[in-house]
Amino acid sequence: MNETGEAVERGAPGAPPGPWWWTRRRSMVLDAALAGASAIECGLEGVSFAHEARLPVALGVVFGLLVGLTLILRRRWPIAVVLISIAVTPAEVGFILAVVGLYTLAASDVPRRITAVLSGMSVTATLIITMVSFHRDMEQDGWNPPLWVAPLVSVLMAVGMTAPPVLLGLYAGARRRLVESLRERADGLERELSLLAERAEERAEWARNEERTRIAREMHDVVAHRVSLMVVHAAALQAVALKDPEKASKNAAIVGDMGRQALTELRTMLGVLRSEDAAGGASRDGHSRESAPLAAVAAAASAAADEAAGGPCLDELEALVGQSRTAGMAVELSIEGDERSYPPRVEQTAYRVVQEALTNVHKHAPGAKARVRLARRTAEVAVLVENGPSDRAVADAGLPSGGNGLIGMKERVATLGGGFVSGPTDAGGFRVSAVIPDRTPAPVTSG
User: Fold this and answer.
1) Which residues form a coiled coil (predicted)?
2) What is the C-alpha to C-alpha distance for residues 378 and 419, in angstroms, rounded to an integer?
3) Which of 113, 175, 233, 434 has its CA 20 to 30 A from that of 314?
4) Is the CB of residue 73 less than 8 Å from the CB of residue 81?
């Protein structure tokens, strides 16, 4: 009788519409079997009822069969089945009908008030009929038991026929509702996890895009600056190759040094990239569908790539300016403030801004004078690169421009929460300035 988990146990409020209310073939077979057993029992009991009521036996049998077959409606109309069992209690038929009907009513989603009322009616009807039958049987047998025997037997019979099926039905219904609640919670958690996975995938994609942008900026800074200087020196080498072999040899050595420096930086950068790819591949092999670790790996790699690559720092600005001077540019360098150290990313960003600005001078303002200013402050570092108008007498090196230099500098500075400004000057030159904050917490000094 324990059918927890079947949707048809919901009773009338949750039963599907239509004449066929079973959701599974097994449920229909079970109900048909119970209705058949109930019909046989009621048919046999209908014979005794026909004799006592002085009715034709056939009528009593038909009456019992019809009453027993109503049990097949227990899932669709459990209240009606219990009411029929209570109505036929005086005829002393329908034991299976009463027990199964009460169980189904208690296990269904019928309001508990209705279940309590119908259970009380069943107990009362059974108690009265049992007491009357007991007195009648005792009179026929000529036995006069004590007065307390009849009430005790009647109460035991009434409670014994009503309480077990009702309690079992309440347990089955509560268990079914608990299982459904857990299933709904599991479905909700699955949907929530799916949503979190989608958001994690979006974050991972954003982190990958940020990483690609960072790598593109690094490649642009390294290649554009070094190659630009190499082209300038190569042009100078071509111009003096026949006139001044010593100077040509010097320019060739400079071109070679710059090429080696560019290759070294590219190898270092590619090595970091390979290590990040290996970390990402290991994460994908272990958790192919979990994107949150990928996002964390990509973000951490983006934050630590410059440090791992051993990128440039502010102390190397003089060497950077020296390279431009060697290429024939008149560059003035001024440094303000006490010497202090900043986080690697801050120093590298400031260095790259100066590097890209000088590269742009080589590209777009050949022969122009440039001024580089570095200001070391307590909570920030500021850089300014300004050049005058181009000297048209100097031959243009013909360097291509992708138009991404200023955008890359602005993105670098904005990533660290700084400010970036660029634009032409009144004198016909160009100015690039950036202020990069130092996010490192100041040390706490004890009084």
Assistant:
1) 179-210
2) 16
3) 233
4) yes
Distance CA 122, CA 119 (A): 5
For 172-205, b/e burial (b = at least 16 CB within 10 A) is bbeebeeeeeeeeeeeeeeeeeeeeeeebbebbe
Q: Print pLDDT tens along the chain (447 aa).
A: 444 444 444 444 444 444 567 777 888 888 889 888 888 888 888 888 888 778 888 888 898 889 888 888 888 888 888 898 888 888 878 888 888 888 888 888 888 888 888 888 888 888 888 787 777 777 676 667 677 777 788 788 888 888 888 899 889 888 988 999 999 999 999 999 999 999 998 988 888 787 777 777 767 666 666 677 777 767 767 766 777 777 777 777 777 777 777 777 776 666 666 655 555 555 444 444 444 343 333 434 444 444 444 568 888 899 888 888 887 788 999 999 888 888 988 998 999 899 888 888 887 888 889 999 999 998 899 999 999 888 765 555 555 555 567 887 888 898 889 999 999 988 889 999 999 998 754 444 444
Tokens of 282: 């290991």
CB 166 within 8 A of CB 115: yes
Angle, alpha carbons 82-84-87 (nearest 5°): 110
Q: Is 433 helix (H, G, I), strand (E, B) or coil?
A: strand
Q: From CA 330, how far away is CA 284, in angstroms rounded?
A: 52
pTM: 0.46
- HSE value, Cβ hemisphere, 13 Å, CA-based, for 102: 26
Which tokens sit at 326? 């060697």
Exposed, middle or buried, 248 (CB in 10 Å: 0-12/13-18/19+)? Answer: middle
Domain boundaries, the chain: 7-144, 326-447
